[in-house]
Amino acid sequence: MPEQSLTPVELYGTVPYLGGSATGESIGLTGVIDVDWAARDVWTAARGIDLAGRRVLVVEDEILVAATIECEVMSAGAEIVGPAYTVEEALALADEPVDVALLDINLNGVKVWDVARKLYERGVPIIFASANVNGEHAIPSPFDKAPRFDKPVRMAAMLKALAELTARDASPRHA
């Protein structure tokens, strides 16, 4: 296998601190990570997908996964609502005008079914992602017909699903 060079990527921002604190504190995140060339393909998967004018709610408790999803969805032209890292944050954002939602099933040990129910009642299409969508994180009715992806998610497939769900409406839901 040929040697791959690494590309440094700088990260800056604030993330929820969940390590022993329930106060909603945040910690700063500053650093550099190395991304190999294969990972760069993930960041370019949006080519050919047009989500312009769409608002996508992202609910994901892993900061780097959320950041990757955010980059991909924004590169396809959509606006991100969130990301929400906890069920409480997701419930608050579920009232926002959105066209579609990407939900991790298990947020720090808490299932997202209340968030899914709130979005479902509003008619917002949902896509689920989880490390185990068919096992311990099986999706209950009435959400069991929603698209679902096992982690690690193939971003190109998720973007295609987003495009298909939002294409069913001629105009953005939030307009």
UniProtKB/TrEMBL annotation:
Gene Ontology annotations of biological process type: phosphorelay signal transduction system
Residues covered by the Response regulatory domain: 55-166
Residues modified to 4-aspartylphosphate: D104
SUPFAM superfamilies: CheY-like
Pfam families for this protein: Response_reg
Tagged with keyword Phosphoprotein: yes
Gene3D superfamilies registered for this protein in UniProt: 3.40.50.2300
Domain of life: Bacteria
Keywords assigned by UniProt, alphabetized: Phosphoprotein
Record has Phosphoprotein as a keyword: yes
Name by which UniProt lists this protein: Response regulator
